[in-house]
Design a protein that fits this description.
The protein has 224 residues and is mainly alpha-helical. It is built from eight helices and no strands.
Length: 224
């Protein structure tokens, strides 16, 4: 008798569709909401990751070219006059804003202190643009596993309710709910891991670029 019940449960479980789409459709409203939230967070995280990867590659190459051309120029003012109108590179924008302040300065008293303060403000301004999106990556990396865990706990609770209602502990009753629950956990980790890795990498790249801007500022101050 027990063997017949076991074989029947295994047969039912084998007929159950465990594809990701089926797991999503069988989930209740709460688990579906968790899954959709994690998918949206993962997609937006990858959009930020791709955008930041391209950004750092671009600004590093452009900054090296800018520095090379700057030190080859005859004077800072002549180089400033030769700059194009539409600038996107942070180092070029830092130089442009600082030169505008320098040329507009009527008094040369305490010029070095004023320029130092202006350069610090401009560096912070440029870095705030570069660091945009970092907070979202950090938030996803720290909260996505817990959101997925919430979906897992809710799915397991539903499984226990199914067991209580059917009064059957067979695999066919328990497996679908547990699979839905584990699907939420997997999505939480899938969203969190790339976000954490990307945040650590880009945060390190941001510190290096900030140091590059500071070094340029010090050398720029030394010539004026």
């Amino acid at each position: 008798m027990e063997a017949d019940i076991t074989s029947q449960a295994v047969g039912l479980a084998s007929n159950t569709d465990f594809s990701l789409w089926s797991l999503f459709l069988r989930a209740d409203f709460i688990v579906k909401s968790v899954i959709l939230m994690l998918i949206a967070c993962s997609i937006y995280s990858w959009a930020i990751i791709i955008e930041k990867f391209r950004l750092f590659k671009k600004i590093n190459l452009e900054s090296e070219e800018f520095e090379e051309n700057f030190w080859k120029s005859k004077s800072a003012e002549s180089f400033y006059n030769s700059l194009p109108v539409n600038l996107e590179n942070p180092m070029a924008l830092l130089f442009k804003d600082s030169m505008q302040t320098l040329l507009k300065a009527k008094s040369k008293t305490n010029l070095n202190e004023r320029m130092t303060g202006m350069l610090e403000v401009n560096i912070e301004k440029q870095m705030s643009k570069i660091d945009k999106g970092f907070t979202f990556l950090a938030t996803v990396g720290s909260t996505a596993p817990f959101i997925g865990l919430f979906g897992t706990v809710w799915g397991i609770m539903n499984s226990f309710q199914s067991i209580a209602i059917s009064r059957n502990t067979s695999l066919a009753i328990v497996a679908p709910g547990i699979a839905e629950a584990l699907f939420a956990t997997a999505l939480g980790l899938l969203a969190a891991i790339p976000a954490v890795v990307a945040y650590n990498k880009f945060n390190n790249d941001s510190k290096k670029y900030s140091q590059k801007l500071e070094n340029f500022s010090k050398r720029f101050l030394s010539i004026i």
